[in-house]
Amino acid sequence: xxxxxxxxxxxxxxxxxxxxxxxxxxxxxxxxxxxxxxxxxxxxxxxxxxxxxxxxxxxxxxxxxxxxxxxxxxxxxxxxxxxxxxxxxxxxxxxxxxxxxxxxxxxxxxxxxxxxxxxxxxxxxxxxxxxxxxxxxxxxxxxxxxxxxxxxxxxxxxxxxxxxxxxxxxxxxxxxxxxxxxxxxxxxxxxxxxxxxxxxxxxxxxxxxxxxxxxxxxxxxxxxxxxxxxxxxxxxxxxxxxxxxxxxxxxxxxxxxxxxxxxxxxxxxxxxxxxxxxxxxxxxxxxxxxxxxxxxxxxxxxxxxxxxxxxxxxxxxxxxxxxxxxxxxxxxxxxxxxxxxxxxxxxxxxxxxxxxxxxxxxxxxxxxxxxxxxxxxxxxxxxxxxxxxxxxxxxxxxxxxxxxxxxxxxxxxxxxxxxxxxxxxxxxxxxxxxxxxxxxxxxxxxxxxxxxxxxxxxxxxxxxxxxxx
Amino acid sequence: xxxxxxxxxxxxxxxxxxxxxxxxxxxxxxxxxxxxxxxxxxxxxxxxxxxxxxxxxxxxxxxxxxxxxxxxxxxxxxxxxxxxxxxxxxxxxxxxxxxxxxxxxxxxxxxxxxxxxxxxxxxxxxxxxxxxxxxxxxxxxxxxxxxxxxxxxxxxxxxxxxxxxxxxxxxxxxxxxxxxxxxxxxxxxxxxxxxxxxxxxxxxxxxxxxxxxxxxxxxxxxxxxxxxxxxxxxxxxxxxxxxxxxxxxxxxxxxxxxxxxxxxxxxxxxxxxxxxxxxxxxxxxxxxxxxxxxxxxxxxxxxxxxxxxxxxxxxxxxxxxxxxxxxxxxxxxxxxxxxxxxxxxxxxxxxxxxxxxxxxxxxxxxxxxxxxxxxxxxxxxxxxxxxxxxxxxxxxxxxxxxxxxxxxxxxxxxxxxxxxxxxxxxxxxxxxxxxxxxxxxxxxxxxxxxxxxxxxxxxxxxxxxxxxxxxx
Lengths: 469, 472
Prior knowledge:
The complex is a heterodimer.
Chain A: E1 3-14, H1 53-65, E2 69-70, E3 76-80, E4 90-94, E5 100-109, E6 112-125, E7 129-133, E8 145-149, E9 156-162, H2 169-186, E10 198-208, E11 218-221, H3 226-245, E12 253-258, E13 263-269, E14 279-280, H4 291-299, H5 305-313, H6 318-326, H7 330-338, H8 343-356, H9 366-375, H10 381-389, H11 399-402, H12 410-423, H13 425-432, H14 439-449, H15 456-468
Parallel strand pairs in A: 11-12
Antiparallel strand pairs in A: 1-9, 1-10, 2-5, 3-4, 3-14, 5-6, 6-9, 7-8, 10-11, 12-13
Chain B: H1 12-20, H2 26-44, E1 47-50, E2 61-64, H3 91-98, E3 103-107, H4 141-148, E4 154-159, H5 165-171, E5 174-177, E6 197-202, H6 205-215, E7 244-248, H7 249-252, H8 259-274, E8 278-282, H9 285-306, H10 324-335, H11 338-351, H12 357-380, E9 383-387, H13 403-407, H14 414-418, E10 423-431, E11 434-441, H15 447-461
Parallel strand pairs in B: 2-3, 2-4, 7-8, 7-9
Antiparallel strand pairs in B: 1-3, 4-6, 5-6, 5-10, 9-11, 10-11
Helix pairs in contact in B: 4-5, 6-15, 9-11, 9-12
């Protein structure tokens, strides 16, 4: 039997509004615990929520960017449950009448556009942050005590729910990269998984290829990067296939994915469905977004990343176009090309070196970048790297670096190459028996010997000549 | 030597006159009431706490203990909030403060405003000033009894299904439940958010109008509030010419209405006709039949959620427990009395998966029907009248073991609460020596009409608000 994964994602995004969802407390990181709180977000008796209008507008904006229909009548509801990170005993969320429904995200792939349907996007408040102290696992079980920081409590949170339209871990990752870039470009969130401003839960099941059934799904939580999301999904797919093939049944469970060990551990067995006793929040009135507001927000939408990928694809290739767009680098690339840089070379330099150097693409001078891209082959590696690392400095000029020349003289390089190869007989044997990836190692050694001045292209040619003969 | 004021008779408007004319200082007035509290509250137990120093230059006020007051303990009549001192003022307390009204103290109530007799207070019952063996009504028995007993010139109560009007009726004074959304609920300990309203408890209709003008109006902190469509007017006239008064049959002939109560109401209506009103009959069949069950689904459902915040984590009572769950369980078990527990269970059930549509969802539909029915009746009439309570004040202990009998105390006040309409209760006579309340219901935002009709009737009825046992 050939198995097919069926994956749906729930993505939570912190909105970077100045104030919280239902009170005027500041939203932000790094403040002393429990200093950004008030009677509303601490749920003191009688305190009432007031809706943050900016959060509503941003949610609608996001919904529009995801191709959603915007509700004419949206309602906040109470989701009732007891936990100490949930001070009211209910979370104000949305239930049957969210702001955004029925959208779709176009995922450009080599096989054409994949459509990932968006079921809904709704607005809610985040819970407080809890830390469990004294246990081995960092979870509440086994902990001596727990501490709660209500600074995070009440942060506006948008939950985006996809249909189970995703068919591989890789596709999930690509979808998330595209979604994240869409969010970042709207200016509504930093959407950083490491900071917890973007969180992903994955619902995973498998079925026979060609079948339309939906088998029991499990939920994966606590993955803190897109790569780990993909690894977690892959691990879970493998686990489920093994369970079905052994003749057993997959049980509905929630798993935590441990990125260091690759292990999936049950989070909490769902013995019975949670009953959150949703009902419309009586402390708030329904919101009916005016049509002119929705149209204004629609008119303010930037060009969609997916459209830009397709546009760049015709000039580069899908992979490079995707990397540039989802990295927020396509603008810089376009500017560098306009300034005379060669397209592919510019894309490579931007996607590898600029990102590697941790530069803010918006601060980089495209003009100077173009000059460096153009000169990259003849510049000593060390000079090139240094120039790149300073590209974002105010008033940076490539001029002083461009004067330097890499050593391309074969007669000068030959002896160094010979010396390096003699010094590493083991690696030479390995290379000859097929480990061609070692070429980079040899080039690196030669560069080191020459203090970064050797022309890497010439060096690698010389090494190949010697080893391949 | 401070002038002697008769707090039993002094109205708030009169007290304001004394202050304006400089005949008494705010501090002297405040302390005159504290003296009255010293003298009579030992018997009545209207106050849970008092404030010794007058802050403000106006007429002092008592607030029901669900109303958060910065720096002054606010318990909601519950052990679970015992010792809880708010760090912020409710909007109504802030508005009273900025109008210069010094706080006299916080008044007793049924725990979390759940009850009709003030016997559910965790801190002991309040007694009726007319007959201390009887209840003052509830949940706002403390505020109502305090005003009648001259322990406060005026007070604020909160009304979910009758908690202002019914105690005012049983204590023989004036209580207004305003239109839902005209008075901010910010800082008022929530019972059932879609029904809770704050309103005045006073000796006269003019006092009620004055206090209403101080507290009413949109509050940016309460999204369910609205701006008043017209300013509040203190009523003047005594004529009811042209006023159409409707008597909903079901509210006036409901089972359980005592003959003496019906008689006092009939007498008031006869007077209304003499003053020029047209009195006619109308019908609210579904409102009375379904009002009670509808209320006892919606109010407990909202309460079950509103009371979830009392978990022992951040304020109030905390019991010890070896885990979070155990701590919460014990805190809530120790902290809540029987009535909140009963309603939390009812409400949790009504909202549960598989029951929501049949209970809470259905109740919301019925609520819409009840609103419709009132709207239709109020197209023909300016106000609807009925007894406020089917009975006069009942003996302490009589209904406490029978929740259903207790719930029936609010049979006549609940329907208009569900419809979000304003209701005014004024005393209209005595039955068996105890006060009878007349309930006036108007359309949304018709408080000025209620004040006008209530004031005219009040003048004609000449009801003496001083309990007979204290008359000299």
